[in-house]
Protein backbone atom coordinates (compact mmCIF):
# COMPACT_ATOMS: atom_id res chain seq x y z
CA UNK A 1 0.00 0.00 0.00
CA UNK A 2 1.46 3.33 -1.08
CA UNK A 3 0.28 6.63 0.36
CA UNK A 4 0.80 10.08 -1.16
CA UNK A 5 1.05 12.99 1.28
CA UNK A 6 0.69 16.54 -0.06
CA UNK A 7 1.05 19.55 2.23
CA UNK A 8 2.83 22.87 1.78
CA UNK A 9 4.16 22.61 5.35
CA UNK A 10 7.34 20.63 4.61
CA UNK A 11 8.23 19.85 8.22
CA UNK A 12 4.72 18.54 8.90
CA UNK A 13 4.42 16.39 5.78
CA UNK A 14 7.92 14.92 6.08
CA UNK A 15 7.27 14.09 9.76
CA UNK A 16 3.95 12.40 8.84
CA UNK A 17 5.74 10.28 6.22
CA UNK A 18 8.39 9.30 8.73
CA UNK A 19 5.81 8.42 11.40
CA UNK A 20 3.80 6.35 8.91
CA UNK A 21 6.98 4.50 7.95
CA UNK A 22 7.40 3.51 11.62
CA UNK A 23 3.99 1.82 11.22
CA UNK A 24 5.04 -0.01 8.04
CA UNK A 25 3.15 2.39 5.74
CA UNK A 26 5.05 3.33 2.59
CA UNK A 27 4.40 7.06 2.13
CA UNK A 28 5.82 9.48 -0.41
CA UNK A 29 5.37 13.20 0.09
CA UNK A 30 5.56 16.52 -1.68
CA UNK A 31 4.77 20.13 -0.82
CA UNK A 32 2.74 21.02 -3.95
CA UNK A 33 0.01 19.80 -6.25
CA UNK A 34 1.97 19.93 -9.50
CA UNK A 35 4.62 17.54 -8.21
CA UNK A 36 1.89 15.34 -6.71
CA UNK A 37 0.30 14.91 -10.14
CA UNK A 38 3.67 13.88 -11.61
CA UNK A 39 4.32 11.45 -8.76
CA UNK A 40 0.86 9.89 -9.16
CA UNK A 41 1.50 9.41 -12.89
CA UNK A 42 4.56 7.31 -12.05
CA UNK A 43 3.40 5.46 -8.92
CA UNK A 44 0.17 3.67 -7.98
CA UNK A 45 -1.06 5.27 -4.73
CA UNK A 46 -3.98 3.76 -2.82
CA UNK A 47 -4.63 6.89 -0.75
CA UNK A 48 -3.74 10.57 -1.12
CA UNK A 49 -3.70 12.78 1.98
CA UNK A 50 -4.20 16.35 0.79
CA UNK A 51 -3.93 19.70 2.53
CA UNK A 52 -7.07 21.73 1.77
CA UNK A 53 -5.27 25.07 1.48
CA UNK A 54 -2.05 25.18 -0.51
CA UNK A 55 -0.63 27.86 -2.79
CA UNK A 56 -1.47 27.54 -6.52
CA UNK A 57 -3.46 24.27 -6.23
CA UNK A 58 -5.59 23.50 -3.18
CA UNK A 59 -6.58 20.06 -1.99
CA UNK A 60 -9.98 19.98 -3.67
CA UNK A 61 -8.60 21.01 -7.05
CA UNK A 62 -5.80 18.46 -6.71
CA UNK A 63 -8.29 15.76 -5.71
CA UNK A 64 -10.34 16.44 -8.84
CA UNK A 65 -7.27 16.09 -11.07
CA UNK A 66 -6.01 12.97 -9.31
CA UNK A 67 -9.45 11.32 -9.32
CA UNK A 68 -9.83 11.94 -13.05
CA UNK A 69 -6.59 10.05 -13.76
CA UNK A 70 -6.78 7.54 -10.87
CA UNK A 71 -10.44 6.67 -10.22
CA UNK A 72 -9.61 4.06 -7.56
CA UNK A 73 -7.52 6.44 -5.43
CA UNK A 74 -9.03 7.34 -2.05
CA UNK A 75 -8.68 10.77 -0.44
CA UNK A 76 -8.23 12.22 3.02
CA UNK A 77 -8.24 15.98 3.51
CA UNK A 78 -6.27 17.94 6.11
CA UNK A 79 -6.87 21.48 7.24
CA UNK A 80 -5.19 23.73 9.73
CA UNK A 81 -8.07 26.15 9.52
CA UNK A 82 -10.89 23.83 10.44
CA UNK A 83 -13.65 25.86 8.82
CA UNK A 84 -17.09 24.38 8.43
CA UNK A 85 -17.04 25.10 4.68
CA UNK A 86 -13.78 23.13 4.32
CA UNK A 87 -15.31 20.28 6.29
CA UNK A 88 -18.39 20.19 4.08
CA UNK A 89 -16.30 20.38 0.90
CA UNK A 90 -13.97 17.64 2.14
CA UNK A 91 -16.87 15.42 3.09
CA UNK A 92 -18.60 15.99 -0.22
CA UNK A 93 -15.43 14.89 -2.00
CA UNK A 94 -14.68 11.90 0.15
CA UNK A 95 -15.92 12.16 3.76
CA UNK A 96 -12.42 11.81 5.17
CA UNK A 97 -11.28 14.97 6.88
CA UNK A 98 -8.84 15.70 9.70
CA UNK A 99 -7.90 18.92 11.46
CA UNK A 100 -4.19 19.72 11.95
CA UNK A 101 -2.26 19.00 14.04
CA UNK A 102 -3.07 15.42 13.17
CA UNK A 103 -2.52 12.59 15.61
CA UNK A 104 -0.81 9.80 13.69
CA UNK A 105 -3.25 7.21 15.06
CA UNK A 106 -6.19 9.28 13.76
CA UNK A 107 -4.52 9.40 10.35
CA UNK A 108 -3.93 5.63 10.44
CA UNK A 109 -7.63 5.13 11.30
CA UNK A 110 -8.71 7.34 8.38
CA UNK A 111 -6.39 5.50 6.01
CA UNK A 112 -7.92 2.19 7.08
CA UNK A 113 -11.45 3.63 6.70
CA UNK A 114 -10.62 4.92 3.22
CA UNK A 115 -9.36 1.50 2.17
CA UNK A 116 -12.29 -0.45 3.68
What's the gist of this structure?
With 116 residues, the protein is an alpha/beta fold. It has helices spanning 10-22, 33-42, 59-69, 84-93, 104-115, and strands at residues 2-6, 26-30, 47-51, 74-79, 97-99.
Write a structural description:
This protein is an alpha/beta fold and 116 residues long. 48% of the residues lie in helices and 21% in strands. It has helices spanning 10-22, 33-42, 59-69, 84-93, 104-115; strands at residues 2-6, 26-30, 47-51, 74-79, 97-99. The chain has a five-stranded parallel beta sheet with strand order 2-1-3-4-5, with helices on both faces. The longest helix has 13 residues, at 10-22. Pfam families: Response_reg (PF00072). Residues 2-115 form the Response regulatory domain. Keywords: DNA-binding, Phosphoprotein, Two-component regulatory system.
Biggest sheet architecture? 5 strands, parallel
Q: How many strand segments?
A: 5
SSE succession: EHEHEHEHEH
Strand content: 15-25%
| Structure classification | alpha/beta
| Low-confidence region ranges | none
Global morphology:
globular
* Strand neighbour order, sheet with most strands: 2-1-3-4-5
Proportion in helices? 40-55%
Backbone CA Rg: 12 Å
What tags apply to this protein structure?
48% helix; alpha/beta; 5 strands; 116 residues
Amino acid sequence: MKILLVDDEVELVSAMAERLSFRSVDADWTDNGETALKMAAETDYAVAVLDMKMPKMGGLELQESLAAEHPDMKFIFLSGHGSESDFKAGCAAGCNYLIKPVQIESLMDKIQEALA
